UniProtKB/TrEMBL annotation:
GO process terms (BP): proteolysis
Highest classification ranks of the organism: Bacteria, Bacillati, Bacillota, Bacilli, Bacillales
Key words, A-Z: Hydrolase, Protease
Name of the protein this chain belongs to: Spore protease YyaC
Originating organism: Laceyella putida
GO molecular function terms noted in the UniProt entry: peptidase activity
SUPFAM superfamilies in the cross-refs: HybD-like (SSF53163)
Taxonomic superkingdom: Bacteria
Length: 183
């Protein structure tokens, strides 16, 4: 499966993310609505990535995107299956972009991983949740350690916020391109 790591301090992070997201969406017909499943909680600075992206996309009223997961209504482990069922009921043939925070190697902290395929939410915390998505975006917000919940709670919010801004800008740009009919 294809995947890329994009450091957020790279000046062309948004254009690179737009490029890769556009390429990953090619096999998915524009007739299939884009659904952004923004996973995480507002109770842990490192795990707010998904809900922040969802809030930014919702506030921007991004065309052609249905958003599940915001700061006001987060999609966390306890709500994930319920939201997945609601998504299927409301959008029968979606293209799902799953967005979540992740812990990783120290060298990868501050990068966004984008790829084709499903996301396994909660994996870093030892949770067994259903895999989801056609495309995934993972923000590596901190290094893996012996107490992952504590690490996520003490992650710098600035890093999470910067990642959310970059991800939401890229998704908005791709959604606008997808929603604009060709001449």
């Amino acid at each position: 499966m294809e995947k890329w790591h994009i450091p957020i301090d790279q000046s062309n992070a948004v254009p690179l993310l737009i490029h890769h997201l556009t390429q990953l969406l090619l096999p998915h017909p524009p007739a299939h609505p884009l659904v952004c499943l923004c996973i995480g909680t507002d109770r842990s600075t490192g795990d707010t990535l998904g809900p922040l992206v969802g809030t930014m996309l919702t506030e921007a009223r991004s065309p052609g995107i249905r958003v599940f997961g915001t700061l006001a209504q987060p999609v966390h482990a306890y709500r994930l299956e319920k939201v997945m069922n609601e998504m299927k009921r409301l959008t029968p043939t979606p293209t799902i972009i799953a967005i979540d925070a992740s812990l990783g190697n120290q060298k990868d902290v501050g990068t966004i991983e984008i790829g084709a395929g499903t996301l396994a939410p909660g994996q870093g915390l030892g949770k067994k949740l259903p895999p989801i998505g056609d495309i995934y975006l993972k923000g590596i917000v901190n290094a893996t350690g012996s107490m992952p919940s504590y690490i996520l709670q003490t992650t710098r919010f600035h890093l999470t916020y910067e990642m959310a801004t970059i991800i939401s800008e890229a998704i908005k740009a791709v959604a606008i391109k997808r929603a604009t009919p060709l001449p």
